[in-house]
Structure prediction request, 635 residues.
Amino acid sequence: MELSGLDVGVLAVFFVCVITVGLLKSRREQTSEDYFLAGRGLKWWLIGFSLIAANISAEQFVGMSGQAAKGSIGLAVASYEWIAAITLVVVAFFFLPKFLKSGIFTIPEYLEYRFNHTSRLVMSLLMVIIYLGVTIPTVIFLGAKALSPLFKQELMGLPINITTLSWFVGILAGIYVAAGGLKACAWADLIQGSALIIGGAVIMVFSFMALDDPGRFEGIDAAAVNTSLGVGAGATFGQKFAALKAANMHMVLPRTSDFLPWTALLLGIWIPNFYYWGLNQYIMQRTLGAHSLREGQRGVVFAAFLKLIIPFVVCIPGIIAFTLYAGKMQENAMTQESLNKPVLEAFDQAKASPAQVRMVIPFDGDFAQLQPALAAEVMAFNATVLGKTVPAGPDLAGLNAGLLSGVDKSHPDVAVRQELVGYDYDGAFPLLIRYLTPTGLRGFVLAALMGAVISSLASMLNAASTIFTMDVYREWFNKKATQSVLVWVGRSCVPVGVVIGCLIAPVLANPRFKGAFAFIQEFQGFVSPGVLTIFLFGLFVKRTPRYCGVLGLVLSPIIYGILFFGWGDMAFLNRMAITVGAIALVLLLVTLIKPMKEAIKLPEQTKIELNWSKGSVYFGVFVTFLTIVLYILFW
Prediction:
């Protein structure tokens, strides 16, 4: 299904308005504080919507929705949103006052004051690498993924695929962040943050309508829907939703889950949350630009409340999408160029002489269940390549995984191809847009989704340019740089980030990354445990020696890397928890053995008002209580 002229018109008008408003609001930027921190003049409502718009993107609408569509995960993925609500409340009252009091531009800058100059440099480089190699490419890829079902294979002679759409998304985001800085991002976020919540709510309503009466919409087999839910033909919406809730809307996964075991709720999930919401430059940059501590706290707590809404407009529609369009997700997995097709084509060419090809092919449980004959054929092929006996038993996926276990070490000359998958889960939300929304409204929903993508991407580009300019360029290459030079360097960093992100993004289509949402969480794990641990020690343990900053940052990728390569089957959140525990133990021992004689006195600025917001405290308690209620309802 193509976009109509009306849809394209709505999409175009939306982006013209967003870019125009952002650039008009930021047209007077002259200093680095103007460009990178919006002149420290952001109000609470701008901060709140900007935090949500910077955070919510295709990572949620495509990646998180796709994870929710998996029966083995379901609503449990919503913990990333609901735990974030409590995290934001803590950040507002324990992290933000300390950061604003010191008057910092960037999060790594705080490390120089508390630890030393080297720790600031190390964290800055790690953050830039994570932005350029993980977060920016992931958001670009997911934005392209969301657009791909809505276009033909070719447009005006140009091939339309993940690669070309990635460049479209990246360039569009780079335009206004390079021109306008943080203030442009914040005002654009106000529009896009509102639109994405409204657009997500629209999709939620239409998915409810389709679940209630599947026959009203294109491409849905009503009988198959009822069968999958285990209800009769005359079942009401309430009965269907109750069946879906009982099967997939639960917050606790088994301890053996490799995605989000219940054990991770005790500690593991808090690590990426506190790192992301309290120590991540592209998120905290909004709060560092607050007009006052009062405005910053109000904005952060407001964002915490909005986070409670996100699973209802992202995760639940994803769960419903699988119920409605499981067949199409299966078809997409088998036919889309970026999923099974290239591997199956290579398999067809190689199976005549497997001993000479030297490749093996993994597959997941969905593929084995849906394509048992082909899965058995692939497993037999793998056994021949490895010179092993074909294992026997009903669990084809488990048997094949055991067959390939350790193959990289035992047969280093054998290439392991990308995994064959049964369903294209990341296609859940795009399918809802494609088949449920009417002409015109589809353009608005797509605009809201793409606005969220562009907003997040622009925020990351702005954060990466801020860190490189203020923490690397100014500190190590040009200490006497003028304000105009700093702004020029910041703007110049943006196209570099766009090019790198667009080059990496298409690679993420490979299913071996286990979905874009899992990819971004997994690979941030090399850095986030160390960053969180040293900041906790730096903020709250006054006698921790200065060199512990570098020590914690260096230990993090080493410890997490050992766990990643040695215990790959362990849930990454559990690996994070172990990494944090190990680093904390080392830093604690160092602090006990050789503590600093005197606590460090951090710099204090006088420009920003530091009075607390009592109303935010009460509202923060309410948000925390509401989060606990949601966990009880869906436990």
